[in-house]
């Protein structure tokens, strides 16, 4: 199973043709920015967006943020030109990847680049093929780190309604998380269209985190705080993780498989989870 550095809690899509947005992205408290060449850019503005993104990648200071570029789809006339720009960044996000052959094509497009790969799961066929893609990724797409759920396109493709609480999609999301985890991959939660109802958004973030997703993709800066809070380790979780590690480090517990901490039995298997919590805390300056 492949080990990865912590995934971002919040990954904000920014239109690649919007100069003001690209400038603003350098100061926002999100963990990642996804400079977009796909849905948020009109067909007649793709060239301008590529030029602006290329300039931002060479000149802008995004600090510690992960910088990603979302290309247009593999089957579009824009993909080849998009990849030439996207190869210069840390992560390439490819939309509507539905088959193993398409995943292989993504990797081939990255050859010679150090960029990591996130692919978007946006079709019913992608969900059906997710296990095959995840199980074969180490061989055919070693750059792959994560699947990104696209609920808007999934709903359109499957005729599912997008309802408050997403109850009709939860089983699909959970299956995606389990499938990805089995092969050392992570899942990023879908965007939420309603950026004004921040309470509903916070609940959706908590749902995604409880399902085991690594972070959330966003469409508006107002959503950053809620995503960071839900997907980052909370103070009590950090304290608990430190307590678990400290307790098992005691000489008297060196050979014990389970110990009691604050009235709860904790097994040695919980040590790795505690270390993961502290790694995420350190990555996001929460420790």
What does this structure look like?
The chain is an alpha/beta fold and 287 residues long. It has 2 domains: 10-231, Phosphoenolpyruvate-binding domains (TIM Barrel, Alpha-Beta Barrel), CATH 3.20.20.60; 235-283, no CATH class. 45% of the residues lie in helices and 17% in strands. It has 11 helices and 10 strands. It has helices at residues 19-24, 46-59, 79-86, 100-110, 124-140, 151-158, 170-182, 198-211, 224-231, 235-249, 270-283, and strands at 10-15, 32-36, 66-70, 91-94, 116-121, 144-149, 186-189, 215-218, 258-261, 264-267. It has an 8-stranded parallel barrel, surrounded by 7 helices. The chain has a two-stranded antiparallel sheet with strand order 9-10. β3 (66-70), α3 (79-86) and β4 form a beta-alpha-beta unit. α2 (46-59) runs parallel beside α3 (79-86) and α10 (235-249) crosses α11 (270-283). It starts with 9 loop residues before the first strand and ends with a helix. The mean pLDDT is 93.
Summarize the model shown:
By secondary structure, this protein is an alpha/beta fold. Helices cover about 45% and strands about 15% of the residues. The chain contains eleven helices and ten strands.
Secondary-structure blueprint:
Layout: E1 10-15, H1 19-24, E2 32-36, H2 46-59, E3 66-70, H3 79-86, E4 91-94, H4 100-110, E5 116-121, H5 124-140, E6 144-149, H6 151-158, H7 170-182, E7 186-189, H8 198-211, E8 215-218, H9 224-231, H10 235-249, E9 258-261, E10 264-267, H11 270-283
Parallel strand pairs: 1-2, 1-8, 2-3, 3-4, 4-5, 5-6, 6-7, 7-8
Antiparallel strand pairs: 9-10
